[in-house]
């Protein structure tokens, strides 16, 4: 079973890496913002650009799924914290 981590910040706001498995609407008003841009390069590799959350560019990856997995891992390790951003 897949787990989803939700961080509750001191002001009561929540942070999570969005996943369709969790319906966030019962929590109240939601604001979803992009954490990265996973895009192909001209050579056909994939990059995960985490600039929207002041992160690095990850890659290149051969498969898009590898870039997506790296994106989620980075967000969970570095963005999904109790620091209010």
Query: What count of structural domains?
Result: 1
Strand order of the largest sheet: 3-4-5
Shape: elongated
Radius of gyration: 14 Å
Briefly note the structural class of the backbone.
alpha+beta
Quantity of strands, as a count? 5
Helical proportion, percent range = 10-25%
Residue share in β-strands:
15-25%
Major β-sheet annotation: 3 strands, antiparallel
Uncertain segments are none
**End-to-end gap:** 29 Å
In DSSP terms (H or I, runs of 4 or more residues), the helix count works out at: 1
The secondary-structure element order is EEEEEH
Mean pLDDT over all positions: 89
Describe the structure.
The protein is elongated. The strands form two sheets. The protein has a three-stranded antiparallel sheet with strand order 3-4-5, with helices on one face. A two-stranded antiparallel sheet has the order 1-2. The protein has one domain (6-79). 19% of the residues lie in helices and 22% in strands. The mean pLDDT is 89. The protein is α+β, with helices and mostly antiparallel strands. The chain starts with 5 loop residues before the first strand and ends in a 6-residue tail after the last helix.
